[in-house]
Structures
1.
Amino acid sequence: MKGDPIGAKGDFVTSPEISQIFGELVGIWLVSQWLEYGNHRPIRLVELGPGKGTLMDDILRTFNSIAQTKERIQAVHLVETSARLRDEQRTKLSPRIGAESLYWHDRIEDVKPSTDQFTMVIAHEFFDAIPIHIIEKTAQGFQEVLVDIDRTAQTLTTTSASVDSSNRHRPANFRYVLSGNMAPLARTLGQSSPRFANLPIGSRIEVSPASWAIARTLGKLITENGGGAGLIMDYGDDKAFGSSFRAFHRHKVVDVFHQPGMCDLTANVDFAYLREAISAGGEVAGSLLIRHS
């Protein structure tokens, strides 16, 4: 991971870094789930992509302030691959729960189902960073949109009004092309949701099979054995998107090909797709859509 992408000097700021109220409200929701469904079982918290540990810190503080939950958390599992962020999380969270109760994993699949704990999973601005595939429906079926080297033009002017004006002109080294009929993955992705069958010819959609697999595992994790609950918070809607893939650099939207490896890449989350994956193993309560003007 290059540098520190979170904060004023990075590429983006997340809600927990702005105000502790956000994390406290999430904590209250989790407490309500345990009080209603937990049957007084010990609590296990799992967070996907915990960043600097700020959200989990606020959640733990909330749990510790409520008499019924103060001594009920047995373990906190953090799905994090960055060694530097793991160190930051350890420093921040150890005073709240003790280092012996903190566990780190590279993948959610490494978090094993618990027979005696009530597992609650939090994913905040996690799925928007998971890789996507872009597929297009053609008369011959779905084809994948790939990145190719553009050997013709010297410059390319972007048309999106939201793109940072300082990056409207860039060396046209890359371009999007269709895979043709030699991409069986595109056909598989096109069949991965019944919602995609009736799309008109020419439609492009962003599909994340990795997100689907993670959501399916999440569903199993909170329904098997000890049971649990999950809360996913992200940018998106109950639909597939076709052109939400974008890059952020120093808090500005830039071309996705701008300084490869130095920008934060993101795409809107198709919550209906996640629901389809989770519902195979767990009950989905629905989505709450919050729009910001």
2.
Amino acid sequence: MKKLLIVMLLLLMLVIPAACSSEAPAAPEESGEAAAGGEESAAGEEGEAQPTYKEIMVPYDELVPTARIVLLQNAINFSREGFYTADNKPVPEEISYNGETVAAYPISYAANFLIKGISGDLTITNNDGSTQAISAADFAGLYVMIDFTSDAPPVLYNPENGTTITDFLFAVTAGGEAIYSVVSGSIYNAAEIIANVGWDPEASYRYVATDKFHIPVGPAENATGEIRGTLSGAINGSFPDLAIASGKINDVIFIEPMEE
């Protein structure tokens, strides 16, 4: 009997280490889980929210523009603070027109955004395609009579000498800048606006909003872009092929060439 017990004890001593050694591979499984966790952490870092364009945008006041196409309606209509505040926003004045007293905005609100100002003669282009020349002094004295929510062109009138423009589309200065009218409900191709005033549609341009937000737009995006006069009277830009800011910019006040 004693011999039998001794044999059984010996067998148990042999079986127990073998059983322990069969559980040893558990360690590599834990290492595998740790590696997977490391990949998830890296993916999380890569997936962290990137700064928005507006957060990394160079402040407009740090840029040096060289020329502008000023959009008339947004230049004389206060929508939000930026270039204008409640203290210096455009205010209509009363003038006499056709025997009546009417409210009108001095064209100087728009002209003041031109980098080179106005001198010499300007060329006016009307909606019907006709053109006329006007002196800088005559143009500077114009007032703008406008219903921002109407699709009718604004009436430009100089009360000093009676100069009247009733079908105004845009004016180009001797320095190559422009003031462009975009009435409520109208849609213009962005590249065509640029070409109409004699600028290169194959160049890149900056579109700037009344609050100083701005986006860069290349020639391909300009070709499919639109400048729209909204029913509320504001002028917005839409560029379906532009990734920045989802291709949208509201309250565009002017367009300017990008620095080379």
3.
Amino acid sequence: MKRRKTAAGLLAASLLVGAVPVVTNAAPVRIVSTSITEQSSSGYRVNVTFSADAGVSRVMMPTWTEANGQDDIVWHQASVSGNTASFYVPVSAHKGESGAYITHIYVYDRQGQFALKGENVTVPASTSASSGLSIGDVSITELSASGYRVTAKINAPSGVSKVLMPTWTNANGQDDLVWHQASVSGDTATFYVPSSAHKGESGAYTTHIYLYDNAGKLAPLKGVNVTVPSGAVTPSVPSSSLSIGDVSVTELSASGYRVTAKINAPSGVSKVLMPTWTNANGQDDLVWHQASVSGDTATFYVPSSAHKGESGTYTTHIYLYDNAGKLAPLKGVNVTVPSATVTPSVPSSSLSIGDVSITELSASGYRVTAKINAPSGVSKVLMPTWTNANGQDDLVWHQASVSGDTATFYVSSSAHKGESGAYTTHIYLYDNAGKLAPLKGVNVTVPSGANPGGSSGNNNGSGTGVLSMAIPYVTELSSNGFRVTIQFNAPAGYKKVSTAVWTAANGQDDLVWHNMTVSGNTATCYVPISEHKNEHGSYIVNAYVFETDTKYVLQGMTVPVP
């Protein structure tokens, strides 16, 4: 059974980088804690502390009220300082409504991974009306094939910080979205929107107006729709915009292939990345390759040895970043790598983790020992460990000792709040070339008992613990669809496990809720593109485990369907 657009708790849009969560040399981004402060009838502040070894890209806090679905959803961008981020959610941005609000927190790292958590907040009703931050009349002048001018009356008792006028054409979604900054003089903000900044297109344009005051508050949004006439206007010369041109594939053999792309970056090139993976087994072999740049050309040779030596269909996406931090519209290629006629390498010659054993198990902890193989030499072995109780609030990245082909570490329960019950340890093996072996993990049950240094009163009997879920992963990825699988912990039982899926194109017009098949603590479902208008490109997946109708956990990811 599938339900379309029926869950009040689902996000109506997503800002994403087109890649599923991946394992790289950095630990996965995670949310450590969240809190709500400054709560009043005017709004509330959402605070988040996170860990992002790869660096944080942005923190988004989409917010809406429970009343009338998501008719007032706004994607707020939080201010980031170190490993914390904060945003004040003004009720003025949400029709001034009181009552139940929902804020989801997305922390994106610089490798495209993200962590997700939700907060429910009750905003009390206001006892008095106020004339606050607001946008007044909006007018359109100077309309021609060349563009149009947007002028808005504004009121900001605390002073104006900035006025933004994001604009896009209705053709092809928001592929030409530009966040223009308006000029402000007194109580007036204005900006001339040139069609040359939007591919020289005519037809329907949309401009939204964001007014921020000096207190960081956002006025209720306003927007206008404008029809730009066609005419003899010369669109901006392609060479003046950040873009990726022709892409070619050469040197194709069983050993790999070379990707070469023409690029244009008027502000200068910061970097060009070429994430690559095979269609077999999802993105288990995803590697973010950095291309070499010379003049207007970026190139990288993709060796099949970096992708398990597999033949068959490969996908390479191209990310061009300029010195202003902007990202060009993405391009990608699919390449068929032929099978090799040579004998494949012996498994022992590859970076890998072998048998894993648990010894010295007691209430005090346990020892993890793993056989390892690293032909290029071992850089380090990490064993991140946490208990199933309360999510990953006690996550510790332990560094193992290495001797020859063996890595070992004693996990002390005192380092994890002295808790008994279910523990999880993952094993990360890095070689001297900076590569990461395929991960392995173990689940261990630590018995209760006298535990020096541990916390007291710990209860891990049946039905205790908290609802939790690991990051979803994808298999069976092809042009026809993909399989989503999650592992979860529901000590008090669960009502249902569902996955909401939609494509990034055209909002949530193809949203489908897929019911997942559950076996033990694992749930899975296959997502066929035939149920999503047969679209390719970026798919957004939010997996939910519901303990009740109102209590749930969720994890999100994006999947690039070739």
4.
Amino acid sequence: MQPQLPTYDPKAYEPYANAPQGMPPQAIQHAAPAGYGMPAQQPAMQMVSQQPPEAPQQPKVRIGLDHFNFLAVLGKGNFGKVMLAETKSTKRLYAIKVLKKEFIIENDEVESTKSEKRVFMIANKERHPFLLNLHACFQTETRVYFVMEYISGGDLMLHIQRGQFGLKRAQFYAAEVLLALKYFHENGVIYRDLKLDNIMLTLDGHIKVADYGLCKENMWYGATTSTFCGTPEFMAPEILLDKRYGRAVDWWAFGVLIYQMLLQQSPFRGEDEDEIYDAILADEPLYPIHMPRDSVSILQKLLTREPELRLGSGPTDAQEVMSHAFFRNINWDDIYHKRVPPPFLPQISSPTDTSNFDQEFTSVTPVLTPVQSGKRSIDFPVSLSSPLTQYPVLSQAMQEEFRGFSYTADFA
């Protein structure tokens, strides 16, 4: 039985939700400053007896670039960067995803960016233990920023490259990932980007599913969509065949993930994307003769090409997968509450040690490249005549696309 968890407070999601001076919007791995980002205290109801005087309210400020020092680049792509940052006042660490507005608009990704924020808010709603939490969003004239908890243990791709996982370790990670997918599906979200690279490892040895950019909302049982997206090795056959598909695509990817964790290789291989797609549609995965029967069974049931026959495709969704013999020794309540000792603990030499991230990125100087205009945080309406925006990249109408993006979590 899951614990009673904090309820969703829509007031917490208003643009530029404010917070006490000097304390920015996010905490590393659940460690948020007490009271930061909470809605203003409401006056107590008048009672017959005299109430003690209210504590004075703290001054409020917008969250913005001025709160942070950028320390390192954790990842980089066409979309922008993920940066390690610390707050100037408290030195708390955050991972900040920085996206250029111009790129978002040119690639018709405005709705996708807004959707990513909404999915973060779904993850935030119950502070799910195995989903990456968002502590704030803010924007400048040229960029939007997702301020996320910083997970310093690296991703599972890094760790499997350092050594093959044993059965118990693979089962442990698979169980935690399964509960993350279960929560998403229960909230009408399909993930569509499950892969080792998107599963982060905390210093206490538990996983966090990250990167919600390909998530699709309103995907309840029976709902379908048709967007061609994903990582080639993990894409289900129905996606490749341009068929409409539902949440069963996540269970196919879950099968690929377990296969990779157990065998340190992909079940469907090729020299390029086309060869990988052909293998997904035609080849049968190979299973070593020594592989336990339950492991072979769950992989065969998850890697079933007909989505309606795939394990997890029924109305009970994750419960089908949880009931498989592969997880026979798993106590799901203990997994959810992190009572099972992790099989591995990542190591770092200091809080700012980025050795669990790709040196290709961490060796880059952590700066935001200029995009012609100022870097001040903005509110609406945007004044294009301001001296700080003498050379605006985006028109007023384009800026309006990002109205309401700014946000501070109620627990931050």
